[in-house]
């Protein structure tokens, strides 16, 4: 199935950066105003490696339903496809399906 570019995945889920991505300091993260945490395990425990979000909790890099950093999007974004058969994504896919159904049922 081809991506319909509904961007639901960019609106519904928090994106965890890998250690390399976090250390690159090339991505805006949720708690960056409090400083950078050198110990990545501690950063993960504190959620410091999560991509920053807009007020509506969509990804900070989502603009007009498009990823503004598509070519360098994080690994987590590259791995996820909403037609994946990987059981790891089952709950996420169900959440997206509900979200899209709700949107389509709005007048
Ligand atoms: S980085 Fe891009 S692909 Fe990943 S959640 Fe944000 S807008 Fe979506």
Task: Give me some keywords for this one.
107 residues; mainly alpha; two-stranded antiparallel sheet; binds iron/sulfur cluster
Query: How are the strands of the largest sheet arranged?
Result: 1-2
Helix/strand-derived category reads: mainly alpha
Q: What's the oligomerization state?
A: single chain
Poorly predicted parts = none
Query: Distance between termini?
Result: 27 Å
The number of distinct structural domains comes to 1
Average pLDDT, rounded to a whole number, is 94
The profile of the biggest β sheet is:
2 strands, antiparallel
Shape by Cα distribution? globular
Question: What does this molecule look like?
Answer:
With 107 residues, the protein is mainly alpha-helical. A hairpin with a 2-residue loop joins strand 1 and strand 2. The chain has one domain (8-105). The chain is built from five helices and two strands. Iron/sulfur cluster is lined by residues 10, 15, 59, 61-62, 67, 69, 73-74, 77.
């Amino acid at each position: 199935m081809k991506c319909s570019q509904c961007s639901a995945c960019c609106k519904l889920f928090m994106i965890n950066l890998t250690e390399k991505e976090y250390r690159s300091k090339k991505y805006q993260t949720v708690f960056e105003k409090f400083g950078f945490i050198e110990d990545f395990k501690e950063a993960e425990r504190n959620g410091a490696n999560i991509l920053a979000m807009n007020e509506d909790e969509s990804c900070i890099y989502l603009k007009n339903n498009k990823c503004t950093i598509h070519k360098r999007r994080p690994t987590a974004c590259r791995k996820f496809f909403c037609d994946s058969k990987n059981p790891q994504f089952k709950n996420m896919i169900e959440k997206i399906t509900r979200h899209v159904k709700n949107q389509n049922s709005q007048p």
